[in-house]
Specification:
Elements (H helix, E strand, L loop, with lengths): L1 H78 L3 H23 L3 H20 L2 E4 L13 E6 L10 E6 L1 E4 L2 E4 L2 E5 L1
Parallel strand pairs: 2-6
Antiparallel strand pairs: 1-4, 3-6, 4-5
């Protein structure tokens, strides 16, 4: 019996070792599974973080574009804020030109100098606000983008064919924007 007992003890020990190895193997696989789950949770969090960073960067870029666009619009508004007022004053410039032309014919030089002084001050004030005259003269090439053709007449000479023959009304621009196109007569 003592031999059987030793052999039974040996068998029991072997079986216990096998059971323990199985448990160890199972627990190791369990730990690996937990590590995989932890890594996948960590990876998910990293992906979510990356998505949130991307959203943030896009939102930030969109906001920067918005700020730039509104700043540009505001600058344009300041440049042309008085455009309506200045456009309404353009006929006065035309009236000054006609008055100076007629006063030059008269003998009253003092009145001519007075009106010329007022006209000059008025033009300088508008010039300081950004108003510029569009330079057009007889013989310039007609440009439909820049000029407003009132009529076409037979060209007095071959050199004026397709070119400006006469300027009816001066044109003006405020900054880079033309607020009144010069009215011209074109030779054909």
């Amino acid at each position: 019996m003592s031999e059987k007992t030793k052999s039974e003890e040996l068998d029991e020990t072997l079986m216990e070792d096998e059971i323990q190895e199985e448990q160890n193997g199972a627990s190791e696989t369990g730990e690996v599974t937990e590590e995989v789950e932890e890594l996948s949770i960590e990876e998910k969090l990293k992906e979510e973080l990356a998505l949130e960073k991307d959203k943030f960067l896009r939102l930030f870029a969109e906001f920067e574009n918005y700020k730039r666009r509104t700043s540009k619009e505001r600058m344009e508004l300041f440049k042309t804020a008085g455009q309506e007022v200045i456009v309404s004053l353009l006929p006065i410039i035309d009236d000054f030109d006609r008055a100076l032309k007629e006063l030059a014919k008269s003998e009253d030089t003092e009145m001519f100098k007075g009106v010329e002084l007022i006209s000059h001050k008025f033009r300088e004030t508008l010039k300081n606000k950004g108003l510029e005259e569009v330079g057009v003269k007889q013989g310039d090439k007609f440009d439909a983008e820049m000029h407003d053709a009132v009529t076409q007449i037979p060209a007095p000479s071959k050199k004026l064919k397709g070119k400006i023959v006469d300027v009816i009304e001066k044109g003006f621009k405020l900054g880079d924007k033309i607020i009144r196109h010069p009215k011209v007569v074109v030779g054909n």
